[in-house]
Design a protein that fits this description.
Blueprint (H helix, E strand, L loop, with lengths): L3 E7 L11 H10 L5 E5 L7 H11 L4 E4 L21 E4 L4 H11 L1 H10 L3 E5 L1 H4 L2 E6 L6 E3 L6 E6 L8 H11 L5 E4 L3 E6 L2 E7 L6 E7 L2 E6 L2 E3 L2
Parallel strand pairs: 1-5, 2-3, 2-4, 4-5, 6-8, 8-9, 11-14
Antiparallel strand pairs: 1-10, 6-7, 9-12, 10-11, 12-13
Length: 234
């Protein structure tokens, strides 16, 4: 792909008591603008109103905010998804990765997002909003954790958010990569994120000390974890 993606394993405003987040600060800095346009896309949560309101509160005074509600929730209402082409940041919330992908395809978002990224819009997201950018991912969209292999494919390989923060995530992901159910990919702890440009990993960052991220591949029929250097954000 052409463009910039910041994928959060967890963290950001939605996992902060007061809405502050060093990862979100980095996201705004990536735009190079004093008053960037940031659109929140809460599809994976069914456009949960409280989630969108928390986003607006966290970014108030720092960005011009908007919400793309594909469910037409008020006060935002339904908008043509092409409004994403006018944004400096598209920030995708967490929830059901499978539901997000299905609804996005019905509304034509994959092509719009590729065009936006190529034109300079920064794509970002947490949890399901991390998973969606990759070819495949670990998800609880179907109840128990399961592999999902029909992501957007803007980023190669697979993703596993909440890697060390939720029970069974690590063992399940390692097993799927080892068996070939998922391709090699990246596993990211809560409060950590990966920054990609033009499909290439630039760096891993975190907003709390000790948070980790890994490259997970197969070797000799087993999955291997290679820790990434993770920069602690100020």
């Amino acid at each position: 792909m052409i463009g910039t993606v910041l994928s959060l394993g967890g963290g950001g405003f939605s996992m902060s008591d007061d809405g502050s987040s060093a990862i979100d600060d980095l996201l705004l800095d990536l735009t190079g603008k004093d008053d960037p346009k940031v659109c929140f896309v809460p599809t994976a949560s069914g456009d949960a109103d409280a989630y969108s309101q928390a986003f607006e509160a966290a970014f108030a005074g720092r960005a011009t905010t908007s919400v793309l509600s594909l469910f037409g929730h008020q006060p935002w209402g339904y908008q043509d998804p092409s409004v994403l082409l006018e944004q400096d940041v598209v920030y995708v919330g967490g929830g059901s990765t499978a539901n997000l992908l299905a609804l996005w395809r019905l509304h034509g978002l994959p092509d719009i997002l590729r065009e936006a990224a190529a034109d300079g819009t920064v794509l970002a997201g947490i949890s399901a909003g991390m998973n969606c950018w990759y070819e495949a991912s670990s998800t609880d969209s179907f109840g128990p954790l399961a592999p999902l292999t029909d992501g957007l494919g803007l980023l190669a390989g697979s993703a596993c958010p909440h890697y060390l923060g939720e029970p069974e995530r690590r063992d399940a992901y390692l097993g799927w990569v080892a068996s070939g159910a998922l391709p090699a990919g990246y596993a990211v702890d809560d409060h950590a994120a990966l920054l990609f440009r033009d499909g290439q990993l630039v760096e891993a960052v975190c907003e709390q000390p000790g948070r980790q991220a890994f490259r997970v591949e197969t070797s000799g029929g087993a999955a291997t974890e290679t820790p990434l250097d993770v920069r602690l954000l100020p």
